[in-house]
């Protein structure tokens, strides 16, 4: 058996100019997808070199299926205080909730600073320090690798945000985070076609449907013992009514009845499928719930895409 030799490539050998070469490379959809897979957040480009006062952030993006803004600062050198200050400036200037710092290497004091920011900011704010690497085998083309050096601790954030809540609410928040974390793992273990994302301590879990005007939304309502999966349209009544026109055919293809909710007077619309008589506190039944969510969400993703 002949095995190749793995070798690391100098970043500057491939990307000579940080802004002109690396930022433009990363801004391409297929490369942002690589970063998305690594951190568990679906990143969609808004613009490069977006202005914040006298400064320009390398990449301004948004999370697919939500309005959470993402700022990405690239530094093909070792981290420094100047760029640490910049990412905080960019985050505040755009009111971003996800801040990604991509670098050649992370100094210990800057990893400590990012860890501290994650521990002491609200559960909505998420800082990532990511080491950029290039590797090749023998004479192959170099392959990119994103290595997470520092990232939010979801469990710690959930605990921090729930300290002022009653005990039952705190327990429920932690259980919600565990439920969605285990569901994400279930999808990965069962080779699901769905694109998973980072779970949070909340009663819903959103995923991309492949259309920026809508997304898949899964919920588990513990107070009324039911869970749902379906399509959430944040602000496009025309799309909702277009889908509703095909209601009979969609339901026939999926062999089920949906709740079609135009939500008149509100921007959002929902189309949901519901499973009754569930109890999130019965952890031994989670795999049953995961199977129902997986099978129905995959089917909804497949069929509804055809009408969007």
SSE map:
Blueprint: E1 6-9, H1 11-14, H2 18-26, H3 29-39, E2 43-52, E3 55-63, E4 69-78, H4 81-94, E5 98-105, H5 108-120, E6 126-137, E7 143-150, H6 154-161, H7 167-189, E8 204-208, E9 215-221, E10 226-233, H8 237-245, H9 247-254, E11 259-261, E12 269-276, H10 286-305
Parallel strand pairs: 4-5, 5-6
Antiparallel strand pairs: 1-6, 2-3, 3-4, 6-7, 8-9, 9-10, 10-12, 11-12
Describe the structure.
By secondary structure, the protein is of the alpha+beta class. The chain has helices at 11-14, 18-26, 29-39, 81-94, 108-120, 154-161, 167-189, 237-245, 247-254, 286-305, and strands at residues 6-9, 43-52, 55-63, 69-78, 98-105, 126-137, 143-150, 204-208, 215-221, 226-233, 259-261, 269-276. The mean pLDDT is 89. Helix 6 (154-161) runs antiparallel to helix 7 and helix 7 (167-189) crosses helix 10. The protein is 39% helix and 30% strand. The chain folds into 2 domains: 6-152, Trna Endonuclease, Chain: A, domain 1 (3-Layer(aba) Sandwich), CATH 3.40.1350.10; 157-305, 2-Layer Sandwich (Yope Regulator, Chain: A), CATH 3.30.1460. Strands 1, 2, 3, 4, 5, 6 and 7 form a 7-stranded mixed sheet that branches. A 5-stranded antiparallel sheet has the order 8-9-10-12-11, covered by helices on one side.
């Amino acid at each position: 058996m002949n095995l190749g030799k793995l070798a690391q490539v100098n970043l500057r050998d491939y990307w000579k100019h940080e802004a002109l070469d690396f930022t433009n490379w990363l801004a391409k959809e297929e490369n942002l997808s690589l970063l998305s897979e690594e951190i568990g957040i679906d990143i969609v480009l808004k613009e490069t070199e977006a202005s914040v006062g006298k400064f320009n952030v390398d990449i301004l993006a948004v999370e697919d299926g939500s309005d959470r803004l993402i700022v990405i600062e690239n530094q093909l050198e070792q981290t420094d205080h100047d760029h640490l200050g910049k990412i905080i400036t960019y985050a505040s200037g755009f009111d971003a909730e996800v801040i990604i710092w991509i670098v050649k290497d992370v100094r210990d004091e800057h990893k400590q600073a990012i860890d501290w920011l994650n521990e002491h900011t609200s559960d909505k704010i998420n800082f990532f320090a990511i080491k950029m690497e290039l590797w090749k085998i023998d004479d192959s083309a170099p392959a990119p690798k994103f290595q997470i050096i520092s990232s939010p601790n979801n469990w710690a954030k959930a605990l921090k945000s729930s300290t002022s809540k009653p005990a039952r609410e705190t327990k429920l928040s932690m259980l919600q985070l565990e439920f969605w974390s285990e569901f994400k793992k279930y999808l990965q273990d069962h080779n699901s076609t769905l694109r998973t994302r980072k779970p949070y301590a909340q009663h819903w879990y959103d995923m991309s449907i492949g259309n920026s005007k809508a997304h898949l939304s899964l919920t588990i309502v513990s107070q009324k013992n039911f869970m749902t999966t379906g399509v959430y349209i944040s602000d496009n009544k025309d799309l909702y009514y277009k889908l509703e026109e095909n209601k009979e055919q969609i339901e026939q293809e999926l062999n089920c009845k949906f709740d079609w909710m135009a939500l008149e007077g509100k921007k959002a619309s929902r189309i949901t499928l519901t499973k009754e008589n569930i109890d999130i506190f019965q952890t031994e039944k989670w795999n049953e719930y995961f199977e129902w969510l997986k099978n129905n969400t995959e089917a909804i993703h497949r069929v509804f895409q055809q009408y969007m």
